[in-house]
Amino acid sequence: MSDVYRALSDPTRRTIIRLLRQRDRSAGELADHFPVTKPTMSKHFTVLKEADLIRGRRTGTTIIYSLNVSVLEDALCGLLDVFRITPKSKPTKEES
Amino acid sequence: MSDVYRALSDPTRRTIIRLLRQRDRSAGELADHFPVTKPTMSKHFTVLKEADLIRGRRTGTTIIYSLNVSVLEDALCGLLDVFRITPKSKPTKEES
DNA sequence: ACTATAGTTAGCCAAATGGCTAATTATCCT
DNA sequence: AGGATAATTAGCCATTTGGCTAACTATAGT
Q1: DSSP string, B51-72
Q2: What is the residue extent of each domain of chain B?
Q3: What is the pLDDT of residue B95?
Q4: Which of A22, A26, A28, B37 could form a disulfide with A62 if both were Cys (CB 3.0 to 4.6 A apart)?
């Protein structure tokens, strides 16, 4: 779980997540969006995979990454919960 | 703004925030909750201050830290927005 | 003025992080 | 089998990070 925070702490990885929010993309397609090499991107993918935020499936020679939306939602909502923040709705019943 | 992500990426700092969610606490009082030295805690305070997440005011020899709730809320809600997550409410109108 | 107490700053160190190039793996095509 | 393409793994490097001890600052009390 703490892997998620680590994964989210890097701007490149946050952008990867945002890109995958729109649709699945191959490793190379994702790499095209950043001024870093493919091996570096591969490392970012690994970090995101370790946090279970993304998954890759092979199709021929390309690997298609897709976002694990539920894990992302759980992580972010968990974050809100930890800090007892209520995004838009009514004020909280006051914490413990 | 990116300072906020950095600040949130460390477990000690997340706990500091949680403690300050309950009530204001002195530097020493906060330090008592962790198995690290006071100078180390001081560094964490600095990181949190740089992200404008906490503020300290001096009272005699002690420094009382308090959470900047609005900044924390903004940061987390911003995070939700970036990823187009809707915490509890109705499903989104679908993104761009 | 001296001492005690609460914190921070300075300076160091080992481990982690994010980047690169070179080498390797995997798949497809002829 | 051999070559081309997509991606990862291996290994290296500089910077950042989180920790420590020692030294300093600031305030209070006597």
Answers
A1: TTSEEEEEETTEEEEEE-HHHH
A2: 2-82
A3: 40
A4: A26
